[in-house]
Amino acid sequence: MPAKAPESTDRKPRADAQRNRERILGVAKREFTRSGANASLEEIAKKAGVGPGTLYRHFPTREELLVAVYRSEMEKLAAAERNLANTVSPVEALRAWLLLFVDAVETKQIIAPVLNTLVGDPKKVFEVSYVQIHEALRALVRRAIKNGDMRKDLDPIDLLRAIVGVSNVSASPDWQQSAKRLVDILITGARPLK
């Protein structure tokens, strides 16, 4: 009788475990945004409707939860490119995605300082997301240029630099409103010259 092949340990998580994880991430993002990166993990578990043991089973440390929230938000932002590209015009997809990017910058501003102190090399945490975000933006800009909505010499990275610049320079708590106005200015300024 032949020996049984060993069972794979790379199983997908159970549906309820996956739902718990997603709920924890959603609540953690809201709590970190509201209270900062040192928000109470017990409060996050309570608001997510899970026990502390469930939270710690998914995210054994605050660091792991912060990294997971950041990565989850960046993955959602990258995925938004595909959804927007299929539902609205190229220039509207670019505009909507840049507005989502403003929200993502807020998440990174909350999480990055803590990760810089907790994680051995925070660059590794940000590297994968950086690539995903740039690929998504490049695809949006390419479509807008191909459609004739944007100048052919538009460098997608310039759009990100402008938005990140506003978030880093502004000391006011409403920098997001300024950044969102800047999105419309950038879109208008990047239109083809007539």
Low-confidence blocks of residues = none
Q: Level of helix content? A: over 70%
Categorize the overall geometry: elongated
Number of strands: 0
State the domain count.
Answer: 2
Number of helices: 8
Regarding quaternary structure, what we see is single chain
CATH homologous group name of the largest domain: Tetracycline Repressor, domain 2
* End-to-end distance: 78 Å
The CATH class of the largest domain, by name, is Mainly Alpha
Question: Can you name the CATH architecture of the largest domain?
Answer: Orthogonal Bundle
Helix/strand order, N-terminal first: HHHHHHHH
Structural class: mainly alpha
- In angstroms, what is the radius of gyration? 20 Å
Report the sheet with the most strands, covering strand number, pairing sense and barrel closure.
Answer: none
Mean pLDDT: 85
Into which percentage range does the β-strand content fall? under 5%
CATH topology of the largest domain: Tetracycline Repressor, domain 2
Secondary structure elements and pairings:
Blueprint: H1 15-35, H2 41-48, H3 52-58, H4 62-87, H5 90-118, H6 122-146, H7 156-169, H8 175-189
Overall description:
The protein is mainly α. It has two domains: 14-60, Arc Repressor Mutant, subunit A (Orthogonal Bundle), CATH 1.10.10; 63-189, Tetracycline Repressor, domain 2. Helices cover 75% and strands 0% of the residues. It contains eight helices and no strands. It has helices at residues 15-35, 41-48, 52-58, 62-87, 90-118, 122-146, 156-169, 175-189. The longest helix has 29 residues, at 90-118. The chain is elongated and about 60 Å long. The mean pLDDT is 85.
